[in-house]
Each structure stands twice: as C-alpha cells, then as structure tokens.
Amino acid sequence: MSSARDDILSAVRRASSAKRAADNSANDIATGGPILPARAQGIPGELRNRFCEMARFAGATVEIVADRDRVPGAIAAYLSREAPGDRLVLASDPQIVSLPWGATPRLQVRPGLPLADDTASVTGAVAGIAETGSLLVASGAATANALHVLCETHIVLLRAQDMRGSYEEALAMLGAKMPRAATFITGPSRTADIEKTPQIGVHGPKRLHILLIDG
Amino acid sequence: MIMDAAPDQSSAPDFPARAAAALADPTLQGALTKLQTEFRRDRAAMLGRIPEFDQLRDHATAIRNHSLAHLDELLEQFETNVSLTGGIVHWCRNAAEACETVTGICRAVGAETVAKSKSMLSEEIALNDHLAAASIEPVETDLGEYILQLRHETPSHIVMPAIHLNAGQIADVFREAHTDHDPARYLGDADALLAEARAMLRQKFLDADVGITGANALIADTGSILLVTNEGNADLVHSLPKTHIAIVGIEKAVATLDGAMAVVRVLARSATTQEVTSYTTLVTGKRRANDADGPSSFHVVLVDNGRSRMLAGPYAEALRCIRCGACQSLCPVYGAVGGHAYGAVYAGPIGAVLTPNLGAPGGLGAARHLPQASSFCGQCEEVCPVRIPLPALMRRLREDAFEDRQITVAGQKWIAAWGWAAQRPALYRLGRRIGILMLRILAKVSGGTIRTLPLAGGWSATRDFPAPEGGSFVELWNRRKRRESS
Amino acid sequence: MNAEHHKKITDAPQVGLFASCLVDALRPTIGFAAAKLLEDAGCIVSVPERQVCCGQPAYNAGDRKAAAAIARQTIVLFEKFDYVVAPSGSCAAMLRVHFPGLLSDDPAWALRAAVLGEKCWELTSFLTDVRGVAAVKSGFHSGFRGKITYHDSCAGLRELGVRKQPRKLLASIDGLTMKDHSIADVCCGFGGTFCVKYGKISTAMTDAKIEAVLATGADMVVAGDLGCLLAIAGRLSRRGDRVEARHVAELLAGMTNGPPISGDG
User: Fold this and answer.
1) Are C122 and C173 members of one domain?
2) Structure pTM?
3) Are B155 and B148 a contacting pair, CB within 8 Å?
4) Tens of pLDDT along C186-243?
C-alpha cells in the first residue's frame, strides 16, 4: 500500500521530469538573479528619499530623528498628537529598552509581550526597503511577533544605515537562519472588503509611525 | 467541494439560470460596475508607477515554470527544510484526506476554536464544514470571509470575497449574528461596521487554540511559507495560537526566497493594484527555543486534489496561477454576472479552467458551461501576471467537449455543419446564396430590419439584424473584374 | 528574395483580399471599400473566388479537425500572394496567429502556415505599417461630418496590436472629430456564437459598450470587424438609439452613401 506521499510524489515526478526532459531553459532562471525595478536601485540619498515617499504613499508616517537619544521625546510628541495614551509595550531588544525613557516620565513603558489592551508598541526594523517604502521586521527572542500586529499604533525604529533598495537586499540581512516570522510591513493594516471602500486599521495597526534615526 | 453539489442535478440551477438571475439583480450589478470601473482606473495608475511591470511578469512566469518543471525536487526539499525547523509536513491526495488531516491535528491538541485567515484551498476542500461536524468552531478572520461566514455564503472573487455585497447587507447580517449588541446601535457606514468586526474578532484571535492559514508560496530552500494580507489577520493567526497549520496546494512551491519575491512583485499589483500588501510574511517553522512568542507546533498540509494530474496534462500552465484574481476583475463576462453565477469555488476565466480539472477526475460534466461562456476577448491573458494562456486553455476544453459527444452544447451540430460546408467551396457558395436570399426575404417581410432570426433566438431576443445588401462580395467583385477586362 | 522581386513587391504588391464570410454575405460595400483603399495604396488586388470562412466558428467551437481542414484550404488559396489583407482583425488573427498552431502536427503544413501568417494583415494596419499610408486620399472624404468613436475589436487589438493605425487614418479625414469612449478596448459581447449561446450576458456587455458610446455624444461608432458592428448595431437598433454604425473601411474610402449597419437608416 503506497502512502499518500508516495502517490503524490511519484505522480509529480513523472510529470515534472517529462517537462525537464522536454525543455531545459526553465533551469536558466535558477542561475539568473532577481529582476530589480529601477525604484529598487540608487545611491543612499536617493533610496532614503524614495523610502520616505513610498512609505507615506502607503499610509505610514515617517519622522526623521537626529539621534537615538531623541527617540523617546519624538514618540511622546507623536502619541500626544495622534494617539492619546501613555502606555507603550516595547520589544525586549536592549537597544530599545536602553533608550533614555527617563526623559519622558509621562510614558509608561514595559518590554515584552503585548496584552489585549495595549494600544501602542515599539519595535525595531531589520531594514527599510526603498522600492515600496516597506520595513522588514523579524520575530525573535527580543521581539514577539505580536508586537508587529496586535496594537492600534505600531512605532518602528529604523536606522538610516539599514536602508536598502530591494526586498532581496533586506532579506540578505537576516543571516543564515530565518526567524520564525520575517515580515515586510508596508503602511498600516487595511481592507476594502466593505463596498471597496478603503479603510485603515482592521485587525492590525491603524497607525504605522516610522522613526528614521540618523545617528 | 469544487462545485456546489446538488442532490438532484436536473433541478439544480445551472450557469445560464444563475447568470440570468445575476443580470436581474440590481445590487449585484451596482457592485460589479463599481468593481470594473475602479479596477481599470486603478490598474492604469499602477502600471504608471512601475514601468518594468511586463519584465516582472516575464520573470514571475519563468519562476513559476521552473517550479512546475522541478516540483518533485522542490517539494522534497521543502519537506526536509520544514522538518529541520521542527515543523511537520503532511501529504494529502484529495479533499477528504486534507480535511481529515487538519481535523485530526486539531483534535489531537484538543482544539475548540480555530482562527482562520483567508484560504481559497480551504473553500476548495470544504474544510469549515468538516471542522464544524467535528465540533471544532472555525472562525474566519479576513473581514470579507467573516461576513460570508455569517451569511453562509461562499466567496464570489478570489481576493475580494464579499465584493458582491453592499454595506446594508453587511449591517443586516451583523445585527442578526452579533446578538450581544444593542439592536438599535448605529451601523450605517463602513467605519461602524469595521469597528464592530474588529472588536468581535479580536477576542477570537486571542482565544483560538489553533491558527489555520493558507500560503501564497512554499519556499523549498528554507522551508518557509509566504503569506500576504492587508489586514494583518494572518499574522495574528500564526502568532497567537499554540498550533499553526498551513494548508497549501502542491503547485505553490518555488525554489528560493528570490523566487518568492518575484511572485510578491506581481501579486498585489495584479490583485488589488496596490504596490504590495501591508503584511508580506515569510513564516519558517515553529517558535524557536528563545522566541518571545509563536506557536509550539507548525504543520504544513500539502494538498494534491487533481494538481498532479493537471501537471501531466494539457492544462498544466494553469498551475502557474498565483491566485491574484485579476482575470476575474477584468473579465467582461465575470463583470456581467459575478462569481456566484459560476457555481464553483473558482470563478471567472481561471475558474473555467481549474473547475473541470481539480478534484476527482471526471472532466466537464456540471462545469460544461464554464469554458463556453467566454467571448475569448483575451483580456484575462493580457493581465495574467504569470501569462497563463486562458483563452487557449478554454478552447482546449471546448475541443474536449466537442470530442465527447455526451456533452452537447447548444448549436454544436450547426457549427459542425458549417465547418463541413466550409470545406466544400461549391456547397458553401450555394449555401451562401440561399442564406443571403432568405435573409433578404425575412428583412422584406419585417419592413427592412430582421426582428426574428430563425435558429438564433439568442440574438433576436435582444437585437435586430440588418438586411444583407444583396449578392456575395466575392462573386460581385470577380464578375466586375471579368466585365472590366473583357 | 532577390532585389528585383523585393522591389516588385514594394512598388505594386499582389494582395489577396480575404473578405471574411460576414462581409462577403452581408455587406459587400466593406469589401469594395477595402479593395479601393488597397488599390489607392498601390496594390494589385485579387479576391480568390473559392474563399470561404477562416474557420473561426469551427475553431472556437472546439472542432479542430474542421478548422485545420479549412486552414489548409485557405493556405492553398492565398499563399501565392505577396500579402493577404482582411477587413477584419479576427480573421487576420486567425490566419496569422492561429493557423500555425492548428497545423503544428505536420511540419510541412506548419511551415506553409507560418509563411502565410507572416503575410497576413488587418486592413488599417496594413495600410499604415506596410504601405506607409498616413492619410486617406482627399477625394475619399465622405459627406459625413460629425463625431465618431472607435471600438477596438478584441482580436485585432490583443492579437495583432491594432489600435493606433485606424485612428491615425480616421484622423486624416476632414470634418471628422474622434472621441474615444471609456471602454473602447473592452469586448462588445459579440464573441462569435457566444452572443447567441449566452445572449443575455452578451447583451449586457453590448449595453455597457453602448452606454459608453452614448456618453461621448458620438453620431457614429466605427470598428474594424463586422461581427462587432452587427452586435452593436443590432442592439442600437432594437434600443432605438440614434447612433449609426459603420466599418472603418467605409469611412476611409468615402463610401458612406448607403445605409449604415444599424437596421434602419
């Protein structure tokens, strides 16, 4: 009695190997590289500007911050303008936890897992992708994946030096082992399921705020 | 269930009856007009933003062709790499095995509630019914699918499942289903509806024992799956519950992450005309030892259900499909009758090719109208991001039907007669002369314009037919030429 | 091909006019208009008497055998010409794009089909792209003054790339204004036997086309395929809309004295 696996694989093997025998050109693409649109290419200054433009086009907000020390203040100002609420859940990343949160005592920050009633989260990004204004984020020991999708407001810290042109270049930064979840985030969560009306903030965040950090 | 099964085939409404009902439904017609008009406009804008789109299509096509030519190798490689990350791969020959496998995993972990993100494959195998029969509650988290679940309806479009509904219909079903709310609450606009859905579903995400997703691609190199959503619901589904099950058609494999990105570059652009979906995720296995969150078990359920048979046959090119739904959004026939008229999980041009081929072997049967109900305008092939030659595949299905004399489509005998006569020019000329004469008589009888065409009631019901000018051009021309040269 | 032969083709090519069964049986004016335009462009026109249908009805109904037989017949009849021109995008596409595939099983016939295919053209694109016609003769300008809208027949557009060419030639006619309707490149609903088999759906598609045409305020809808025009005109007539329908060849050749394609006129 053959197993389902045997049946499926043998049927597929018969069909696929016939295709291989008939036409070898399908192998060429394995050796060729990705096709990158012009938008995914450029000098760093161009990529940075394009990232900001595309991220905003996708409905994110982008704020340039001169150095890491200014991040808590920028976040406090953003929240008081856009999303009143003092609680922030942070990724446990030491780079984020060690920011000078003392400078903004009004904010109550807590690293770790987001709870159902958390309304704002702060995570880092592996990279920014100029092609589409996307962020590459990853789950891990320091970053619960839920931080990327559970809260109404998602604030992402992106270092200017982590800007890239294309998806592929960003993925290369993940290293040899894939995280459990590597996500390209482009703008806030959205739907058009009700009469094709574009709406923001479905199950994921209503707001995606990107702090592009120079220093 | 690839097609709506009817216990009594003779009384089941078939495509023409459903199409007629759809054409007479003003709500549906309004929704379809909006879909087409806006989609065409938005697609033009998208093309303006990415001048390299045709090259990206060519590349995606090459990637998918490579996949199909190496599918056995890729599936084995994928399985190996999933296992290395602590995941389990299951192989299912058909819908029944797939449903039993998924239900079995859910039972084994004592699941009571399952949160699902959108998966056309789960519709194809009718998974929700199977889970419910096992007392496991599946909850659709994609807003459109959630609305349909409440209405006990199937999706009418591959990526915009509830496109056929208006806000009023959605409000009605929310009032009916969300009984804990104040019946007099305001549900008069999309924002109110969305707020209510978000609140209802949030708790479901948090409470679910198992998360079930589909996948847009399987990456052999890394044992990853690609998941794309705009809502972020898939990411909640695969991050919060303890068990993550991904059900995927075997044809979805690609070799590398680069291959997956080639698909990403054409998928959202074709499906919704946006640059890329808000959430484009590569999931690789279960939570790592030190991960802050994530499921402790990860399963990939690979489903064949006719795909390996298709791969060996003349319809293999349709397996390149990445389920973008662009062919549906632009097809003028789909645009006239909507997805439900097709009576199948996959509607529109891609549905016309997949429906007769997926599931158990048996060919056209109930799906016989689908490849016939096309004007072969070619719009589908023109927009397909992986260049599936849909009109040619539909024509091939028509050839199969023509050969199989059990399947008679109206007018088949007349076309055969026409074809027979055309091979005999003398007979053709005689037939032409008679035809022209008869049409002229018909025209004279009805005062210049023909209002009733014998044998073509389908025309005359809604159209007039002009009187022929008189004489055959070919004969007239040559007669004149002979006169001039004599 | 030697230089002398090439020069002969360039100066006065032998063109076989493929009338199309609809033009042949229903509206010879289109055939005469096409021939006139071709002759004015310096071609020597022949209309092979044994021509029949291009085989599309059989082909699209799935009767491959009949379609292949008709293809072979057509090749024998037309392969002697320098060019084969049809006042129909769908017929030209059948000959150019589909004949080779139909006969692919037989290498000899496949080659003959390929050779013929290279020579096959839809009328307006032949005039502009091959004969270099930029404007129609001033003597052809018909009495028609008004606004027209052009419908792109699917096969001509998507299989042969015919879009700019008819518009370029129509633009050269004095007194004619052109305005594209919003869905010029969307199917009119004809689709051969589709419009009879699935009449309700077809009519919905034609109505959408007509609404877009009416929205332009055009007096006339023009196209390069008589099948499309019959479907559109037949519906215009039944609806009682006061828009005329004519084939592009009639307008370009100034042969618009006779009634338009719509039932009354």
Assistant:
1) no
2) 0.95
3) yes
4) 999 999 999 999 999 999 999 999 999 999 999 999 999 999 999 999 999 999 999 9
Specify the DSSP element, H or E, that contains B245: strand B243-249
Minimal Cα–Cα distance from C2 to chain B, Å?
A: 31
Check CB contact under 8 Å for A185 and B292.
no
C177 lies in the same domain as C200: yes
What's the domain range around C61?
A: 3-130
Kindly state whether residues C177 and C235 are assigned to the same domain. Answer: yes
Question: Do C153 and C126 belong together in one domain?
Answer: no
CA B91, distance to chain mean position in Å, is 24
For position C58, which CATH number holds?
3.40.50
Break chain A down into helix, strand, coil percent, rounded to 5: 35, 25, 40
Judging contacts by C-beta atoms under 8 Å, the chain C residues touching residue B474 are 19, 24, 31, 47-49, 51
Of C130, C149, C182, which residue sits at a domain end? C130
**Burial of residue C134 (number of CB atoms within 10 Å: 0-12, 13-18, 19+):** exposed
Does A168 lie at the interface with B, CB-CB under 8 angstroms? yes
Kindly give the interhelix angle for C226-239 and C199-215, rounded to the nearest 10 degrees.
80
Asked whether the beta carbons of B401 and B364 are under 8 A apart, the reply is yes
Please list every residue in chain B whose beta carbon sits closer than 8 Å to the beta carbon of residue A144.
239, 291-293
Please count the structural domains in chain C.
2
Which residues is B114 bridged to in the sheet? B138, B210
User: What is the model's pLDDT at position A31?
Assistant: 56
Q: How far is B125 from chain A (nearest CA, A)?
A: 17
Q: Supply the mean pLDDT for chain B.
A: 93
- Determine the pLDDT at residue B416: 79
DSSP letter for each residue of B34-73: HHHHHHHHHHHHHHHH-TTHHHHHHHHHHHHHHHHHTHHH
Residue A84 has pLDDT above 90, yes or no: no
Total number of residues shown for chain C: 265
CA–CA gap between residue A183 and residue B236 (Å, rounded): 12
Closest approach of chain A CAs to the CA of B376, in angstroms? 28
**How far is the C-alpha of C224 from the C-alpha of C155, rounded, in Å?**
10
ipTM: 0.97
Map out the domains of chain B as residue ranges. Answer: 20-308, 423-485
Report the chain B residue with the minimal C-alpha distance to residue A21: B69
Which of B70-79, B89-98, B357-366, C221-230 is predicted with the least confidence, judged by mean pLDDT? B357-366
Q: Is B476 exposed, middle or buried (0-12, 13-18, 19+ CB in 10 A)?
A: middle
Residue numbers in C near B432 (CB within 8 A): 21, 24-25
pLDDT digits (tens, 9 = 90+) for B162-176: 999 999 999 999 999
Q: Which residue has the higher pLDDT, B388 or B421?
A: B388
CA distances, C235 to each of B440, B462, C202, C262 (Å): 19, 7, 10, 8
Whether C120 and C144 map to the same domain: the answer is no
A41-213: what fold? Rossmann fold (3.40.50)
For residue A109, give both structure tokens: 């920050």
Check whether B126 has a pLDDT greater than 70: yes
Q: Determine whether domain B20-308 maps to CATH 3.40.50.300.
A: no
Label the pairing between strands B279-283 and B224-229.
Answer: antiparallel
Indicate if the pLDDT at residue A148 is higher than 60: yes
> Per DSSP, what are the bridge partners of residue A90?
A111, A122
Give tens-digit pLDDT for C130-173.
999 999 876 566 667 889 999 999 999 999 999 999 999 999 99
Paired tokens of B370: 């689908």
CATH number of the domain where residue C174 is located: 3.40.50.11810
Residue ranges covered by each domain of chain A: 41-213
- What is the distance between the alpha carbons of residues A141 and A139, in angstroms, rounded to a whole number? 7
Residue C218 and residue C142 in one domain: yes
